[in-house]
Every structure is written in C-alpha cells, then in structure tokens.
C-alpha cells in the first residue's frame, strides 16, 4: 500500500426513517465529537468535511410491503448519492457517517459468509476468498459498507440489532486493515451507531471507540506494537 496521503470527503447522513428505532440519526454527531476527523488528519489525510445532510419528512409515507417510509428512504438515497458523486468527482474517498442502513441496497447474488463459515475458515481465509471473488480477474474500486451491528455486542452495544456471536473486534479490524492494504478503497459507510440505545454512558463510549478504531484501520492505522488505550470521546487536550 502506498504511503501517499489519502484524500477523504466526509458526509454526515443522520437518517433513521428506514427502521423503527430512533436515535441512530445521532451517529454522525457522536463520531464527530469523538474526534474522528481530527484523527484522520493526524494520519496526514486530506480531509474535507461536507457537513451533515438534512432530510425532509414525508407525512404521507405509508409502508410498501416490508419497506418502512419508502418515499423518505428513496429521497434520502437520491440526496446522498448526489453528494457522494460530488465527492468522487474530486478524486476523494467518500466516508459516509450514518445513520441507518436503509441506504444500502440489497442485491441478489452477492457472495456472503455466515458466522459458521467465518469460524470454520478463519477471517484470513474469508478475506482471501473475498478478494479472489472481487478482484481475481480485474482490480476495481472497493466500496465498504460497515454496519457495526455485525460486530458482537460486547464491542458495539449501542446499536440497533445487536446479535450475540457476531464478529470480534480483532476480526473487524482485520477486515478493514486488509481492505486498506489493497489500495483500492473508494468509499466507506460507517452505519448503525445509535447512542440512544446504550444502556449506560460506558456502552456508548465502547461503541464509539470501536467504531472509530474500525474507521481508522480503513485508512492505515495498524495494530503492530503496543498502543495505549484511547478514549476517543475524551481526546487529549
């Protein structure tokens, strides 16, 4: 991976209409307060903050089949897509801070690994097979959408649908470290941080700290050596 400083465009997407739990719209705010952008700048990344998007409510927005607030979700996706396109035209990596995961369109035919397969193969083999599938014939840009719900709730308790037995902290870091090493990261979504669902302030802090660490690994922070634990909600003055 080249040591050339990376250019990043940060977009806040405080949207929560795609699922029933409020509070996830606070995700961009707590990640900003945790000093995420400052930490990226410390890596000598060229960071441009595009601010938080605003989303209009549609009072007449009845569900369509299993889709909650389909009109609001559709308009929000369009608005976000326009800003991401603007970021990409400048040659920057788009970093979207969510917000709920209704932005991420589910497409049939996507290769996936169950947690049973992760346990059996190991995260190293999973990433090896993933890259073979994505990049085996041709190098192409990678867009990573990281839902912190996918991590075990012992690491990210303040999130919408915590499931016991999810990815470990180390597995989450390994995934993002390996994607960074490809040099092909084009876009990153960090989704489903919901501070209102933390039962205690410590749970919120734990979730934010984990999320910041996962994000930083996408941009080159590695684990080699011993590092002093950092409380990103209380950055050093």
TrEMBL record:
UniProt-recorded name of the protein: Arginase 1
Record organism: Ovis aries (Sheep)
């Amino acid at each position: 991976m080249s040591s050339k400083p990376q250019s990043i465009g940060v977009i806040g997407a405080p949207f929560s209409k795609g699922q029933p739990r409020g509070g996830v719209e606070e995700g961009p705010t707590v990640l900003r307060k945790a000093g995420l952008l400052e930490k990226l700048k410390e890596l000598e990344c060229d960071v441009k903050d595009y601010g938080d998007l605003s989303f209009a409510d549609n009072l007449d927005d009845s569900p369509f089949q299993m889709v909650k607030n389909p009109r609001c979700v559709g308009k929000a996706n369009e608005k976000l897509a326009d800003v991401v396109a603007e970021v990409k035209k400048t040659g920057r990596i788009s970093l979207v801070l969510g917000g709920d995961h209704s932005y991420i369109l589910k497409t049939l035919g996507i290769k996936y690994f169950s947690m049973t397969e992760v346990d059996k193969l190991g995260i190293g083999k999973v990433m090896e097979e993933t890259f073979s599938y994505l990049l085996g014939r041709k190098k192409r840009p990678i867009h990573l959408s990281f839902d912190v719900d996918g991590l075990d709730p012992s690491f990210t308790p303040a999130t919408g649908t915590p499931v016991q037995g999810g990815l470990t902290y180390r597995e989450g870091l390994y995934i993002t470290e390996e994607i960074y090493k490809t040099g092909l990261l084009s876009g990153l979504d960090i989704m489903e941080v919901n501070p209102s669902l933390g039962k205690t302030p410590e749970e919120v802090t734990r979730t934010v700290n984990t999320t910041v660490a996962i994000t930083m690994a996408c941009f080159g922070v590695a684990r080699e050596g011993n590092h002093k634990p950092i409380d990103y909600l209380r950055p050093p003055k």
